[in-house]
Amino acid sequence: MPEPLPPSPPPTSSRGRYERFVAEQRGSPIAKPASREARDWTDDPADKHRRKPQRPVRALIAAGAKHLRGHWGKIAFALATLTVGTLVSLVIPLSTKFVFDYVILDTPGPSGLPEWLGLPRDRSSLLWLVGAAMVALAVVQALVQLTGRYQMTRLDKLVSSGMRRKVFAHLAQLPLHRVQAIKVGGVASILREDAGQLGEMLFSVIYNPWRAAITFAGGLTAMALIDWRLLVGGLMLGPVIWLTHRTWINRIRPVFKAARKTRASTDSHAAEVFGGIRVVRAFDRRRSETRRFTVGNDLMHRQEILAWWWSRIIDFGWAVFIPFASAAVLVYGGHRVMRGDLTIGDLAAFSTYLLMLLGPLEVLVSSASGLQNALAGFDRCLDILEEPTEQATLAAAGSTRETVARGAVAFEHVDFRYPGHERDVLADITFAAEPGQMIALVGASGSGKTTLCNLVARFYQPTRGRVLIDGRDAASLDLDAFRRGLGIVEQDVFLFDGTVAENIGFGRRGATLAQIRAAAEAANAAEFIDQLEHGYQTIIGERGVRLSGGQKQRLAIARALLADPAILILDEATSNLDSASEVLIQRSLATLMRGRTSFVIAHRLSTIRHADRILVLDRGRIVESGTHDELVRTGGKYFEMLQVQLHQVGDYAGRDGNAAPAGQPAPR
Question: Can you tell me the distance from the alpha carbon of 62 to that of 361, in angstroms, rounded to the nearest whole number?
Fold first, then answer.
């Protein structure tokens, strides 16, 4: 029976992806709450086609209020100044009624002014007085509102900075598999864009709505005093606002959220391409990677244009509604003026109040699309903050902050599978490493060597069984305290974009330059460091791009030396060194490993001949265990691996003319 064809891949063009996105939006539920288990905020969810439910607006606003604890005094001050400034602005339209009715016209004219006001009866003097009063009120309003707005803007930046700090700290504490699900550019997008949206919500949820509410309540009160019939027309604004929100606003937030996800993915791809630019150029993939970036960029633009159109429909509706309302007031009020029921001053003041009402409401509705953008970003931050950290599952067991003292490590029937997978990568691992012993891990690629070391470092927890550190269950140890006694040198060395001294000093907080120099000397790195342009203050570039592979490896070893760990993990620590450097580093490592429990992953078996114990792994199981001599005498898998490497060395030497493989004469 022929094998069925795989499902057709998703569209690769920006138009095809956009059309699929629009189809999903038409068929997706809106603002449905979801349990945390059903949500996935990462850029690489297990199910690519699963819709991401979103929290309702009320839940997001309530969550935002919790994150504003301690700032409500500043918010109250800003709102108080806003209230005073808005009320002062509501007094200014009365000046038009005063000028028309008491100065320009005789309805009733200056003679109608109460004596107790002490105002002059001269029309020109009254005009100057009203003008001066209007300017004074405008200055007071501007100063008061400026003070409050500065306070709110300052709080906006403070809250945004605090949220970014919380999200960054939480991301740094997530389990390793969750961190690895996020792309590098995705992290930058989350911290730059999403984490700053809580501050934006201060204006879109609190400040602007409060100003609109004060203006609306004060304006309606003034309009009621002028003519209650016109007030009825003003109250009809409420249903219009509600209908606008229900019809459009809830549909804008999912589009903004999708555009943010596309932007994060595009940023991640750009960071990935330039991080691997040598590979991209070596395989001549510049055009294909540029096309991939263009597709993502075009999709993001299409999504943003879609959100823009939906927002502009709201703006268009209000742009039509405001002139309509103004015309209705002029027609109706004008007839009442002609019948003598209203004065020209009443109509002018009412029209001014109506525009004052419609203006803030138009801004409020227009900013509602911005609110949806802010809610989408804040929603993603809440998803991150709800993720359990590495230590969260251990806190219930009562963790202790004792550091690693001796370095004894024992595995008791440990099985492990990676989260989200169904197959165990380690099975029934049992062994004990005494303090100061060197444990070598050998086996084919994918046999579980690095995974075993990840369990030693507690990057993951065993699926079954337990790991003991100094006789205590590792699950009962505080992670921070435990890792202060751990040192790691990996095959793929990671260095930060800083100075040589900063990268070595990363191994110990507060390390002095003398201690850094001593670690570099012990790692045989001092010689090449001194030859750099600025020595220990030389900037080495992102991931140490300005250094050779061997130089980076020696800096990593110096960093581990400075940490002075009780447990040391070396993952092919000499793989990137030339023969001369390897001899020096092997001596340094011998000094480093003395008195420390060391786990050494090695493919070259010659580097682990003196290990206290060699564990041979095959398909996640320990198939052999013993010293080099014991395993050679056994003649098992380790011996076979050793024979293969010896033959490879012989083949290489034979081609060089120094030796010959077994059974072949040496070349003359």
Answer: 23
Lowest mean pLDDT among 134-143, 225-234, 431-440, 544-553: 225-234
Please list, residue by residue across 583-610, b when 16 or more beta carbons sit within 10 angstroms of its beta carbon and e when fewer do.
Answer: ebbeebbeebbeebbbbbbbbebebbee
C-alpha 380/C-alpha 399 separation (Å) is 30
Q: How far apart are CA 176 and CA 418, in angstroms?
A: 10
Could you give all domains of the chain from N- to C-terminal order, each with its CATH number? 57-386 (1.20.1560.10)
Residues 6+ apart with CB under 8 A from 453: 441, 569, 571, 599, 601
Q: In what order do the strands lie in the sheet with 426-433?
A: 426-433, 409-416, 464-469, 472-473
pLDDT in tens, 354-400: 778 766 766 666 666 667 778 888 888 898 898 888 776 554 444 55
Strand residues in 278-329 grouped as ranges (E): none
Backbone Cα Rg of the chain: 36
Run of H or E including 486: strand 486-489
Dist CA 547 CA 496 (whole Å): 12
In the block, tokens 């956009």 appear at: 18
For the segment 611-643, what is each residue's pLDDT rounded down to a tens digit? 999 999 999 999 999 999 999 998 889 999 888
3-state secondary structure of 202: helix
Q: How many CB atoms lie within 10 A of CB 349?
A: 24
